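Per reviewer request, we include the raw input and output of the structure prediction for the construct analysed in the revised manuscript.
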Amino acid sequence: MTAELVRGQNHPLSETRLEVRVSAGTPVVALATAGDANGTVAGSAGVAHPGAPVLPGLEVPRQAAADHRLAVDLDALPEAVHRVSVLLTLPGGGRGPARFGAVAAPFVAVTGLDGTELVSYTLTGLGAESAVIALELYRRQGAWKVRAVGQGYSGGLAELLTDQGLAQARGLADAVEAAVSRGQARSVAAPPPRAADGDRSRQATAPAPGPAPGDPAASPAATSPVPAPSGTPYGDRAPGAPAQPPYPDGAPPPRAGQDGGTTPRPDAAPQPTAPAGPGGPVDYSHPRRQTTAPPPPAPAAPCAAPGRPASPVAGDATGWSMEERLYNQVWGMFEDLARTTAAYRSAVDFADARREKELDQVLSDPRSRLSGQGDAAREAARVRHTELVEQARAALDRDLAQLTAESEVVEPALPPAYAGWDSPVWHGYRVPMEMPMAVRLGDLCLPEAPSLRIPMLVRLPLERGLWIDSGRSGGSGGAFTDEAEAGRPAMEAAVAHAARLLAVHPAGEFGVHVIDPAGSAAGTLAPLVRTGVLATPPAPGAAGVADVLGRLTQRVDLVQMAVRAGAPDSLPPDLDTAEQLLIVNDFPHGFDDRAVTQLRYLADEGPAVGVHLMVVADREDAAAYGPLLDPLWRSLMRLTPVPDDHLADPWVGHAWTYEPPLVPPGSQVVEQVLTRVAAARRDGHR
């Protein structure tokens, strides 16, 4: 099973002969450095690059390309080498984009020699950087691990190599560029790209590339410049702050003082291009969307009339199964809504800028200000502004109508893992035989289309813990009378998430533990307790906190040792190898320094071996710990019990409004589902 990493996350390596595969969608140069325990590279002899592609245990490609394979033999590395860094840089000389923010996010994967993917990582959040440390393979206590780094350098390869401790960084960077230039001079031009057979297209609503946004003759529908990708898939931002480059689904890239985002990998249709400076049009489609999966089945619906979009069909994306096709289709809808909204906002900004420019020209001439010509010019500028905005809104409304029609078809077809709690699919629910590829953690929407909600799907198993923020639910309105009531909506959301995770896993393959130090969540936890789906009763008090954390920490240690030793059969027979979820209510109450350290350890090391966190907390309550808990917050994906615009997409960085997965008032669906889960677990133990 592939582990999809986010920035800063690590994962143990079970093999020593590996390939690092790079897919960037644009030519990049791939290098590798061999460093000591501190990461310092001992001169140019420790760098594998196109001019010197082979080192002991390392081999890199000899020229720039959109796709690369780097060979790594960890056993063949010198004993002094403790860290191998995989570097990517954009070739210079004006032959391509000058920054990673102007191209699709590069994707890297570590595979075995048979092509089996061990880990993968999408380098989101890059902007002005032209060189980046993608991954590092490092030796820790005799075992090798891989870490997703994603550290970019706007100063290019020379700055990156300087940071690696190379005294002759500039000279080596020039040598790399010279080697790449020689390779490109010998290469034959590639044929023009063609769309993958399985890609689904939305050309009926796609704006065409046009002149640069600064051209007064450009129309909003033609320009619609999409900002360079900023942020991460479901990336987080500080409340009230603009969306920035971390979340399910999914490193942050984490940013200091805030939580991060998940990194699910979308596989949807190619998107329209948009002008981005002198480098020409930029294709923002993900480089891995050229999938080898079979094309979707031909829809049974009649063909659309000429000039009109085809009728939407559930499952019209690529994939081997209907579940995968629906997952990819939802991601396609999410991306389409992001881009069409970006086009609209950009067109409105262009119209505003054009109006201001025309008004400035009128006001700069005293004769116009003192005559009727000024009033006429101002009215003409207003009329042109209105026309441009109306054109942009008409294009947006057309796209929104198509997406709304698609949503109305897709939503009823979603399986339980992707469906809302109000879906009829739950009435015929049966405990699944295998784990799905993703789970729904809520909905996402934008202010331009508040009624169009896109399911927030996060890949399974969870790669990051969840932070259910209880601080935002009652702080502003003052509707709650005490702290317990203020945190109740957050705990209800946590129970709904836990019930969903239990429901989508096979019987006995997902266990839930609860820490409730003060017993304040007894009422909210009742559905979990009454149905008997908890692995153990909720743990109260400091002793309960210590007991649960001690058992889960020991489980992580044992599984890690077994994985590193390559001996999973050596685990104790009484060890529960199922995925485990720990719900912590009202953190950090009841936690001493040791317990906090254990919780941070579980957040960092637990997901890789099947232990996941869900922390219900108000960050202000943890202020007494100071910056000690900042890494914990950044390692968790923040969700809230009320709609909140703290998530950002990986393409244009919109601030999306997150809406929690609400259970219909008076509905017993959660308890009914949990009852069936508990019955299936009992039957499996007989």
